[in-house]
Amino acid sequence: MSKEDRAAALKVLQTEVAGCTRCKVLAATRTQTVFGVGNITPRLVFMGEAPGADEDKQGIPFVGRAGQLLTKIIEACTLRRGDVYILNTLKCRPPENRNPEPDEVLNCRGFFERQIDLLQPEYICCLGGVAAKSLLNSELSIGKLRKTFHQYRGIPVLCTYHPSYLLRNPEAKRDVWEDMQLLMKRMGIVLPGKG
Length: 195
Ligand code: URA
Fold this sequence. Notes:
Layout: H1 3-18, H2 24-29, E1 36-38, E2 44-48, H3 53-58, H4 65-76, E3 85-88, H5 102-119, E4 123-127, H6 129-136, H7 142-145, E5 149-152, E6 155-160, H8 163-168, H9 173-187
Helix pairs in contact: 1-5
Bound molecules: uracil.
C-alpha cells in the first residue's frame, strides 16, 4: 500500500473512531477522541493506555506530564517523536482517569488492531500493563512481561512501565532504560557509549 493510501485509510479509521458511541459513558464524557500521532510509516509504535485530561483537550496522545517524559525517553533513544507513531489502547478518556474497563478495551480492540495493521511497524513498545495485556491478550503483570520480546501478529513487542508510573516511582526509570536499550539493540540503533 502506498503512503498516500495508508494515510487515507488511517483517516477513514480516525473518522470512524470519532463517531464511535459503543462505550456510552466514555462517549458522553469525552471532549473528543484521541486517535494517534506521528510517522505513518514507522519502524516503532508506542502504545499507551488511554487519553488523560490534556490529551482529551488537545486530541493528541501523550501531551501531558507523562507525554513529556515519553518524549524524553524517545530522545534518549536518539529518536525524535516524529520518527515514531504513538497511539493508545482506548481512544477516549476514562472519567477521573480510572483504568479502562475490560468491555471498553474489547470495544476499542478492533480500532487499535486495524490501526496497527495499517501502520505495519517493525516493532511495538507497550507502555504499562493495560497496553501490554490488551495487545498480547495476557493476564501477566507488566513486571512479568517486560525485559523480553513477545509477538503480536509476527511483530516483536517489548513491554515496559508506563511513564505515569515513572512519575510516581522515579526509581523504576532504570528498568525502563534497560528495556529501551534492549529494544534499540534489537532495532540496530546504536546508543552513545554502547557501540
Ligand atoms: N497516558 C496514556 O496512556 N496515554 C496518553 O495519551 C496520556 C497519558
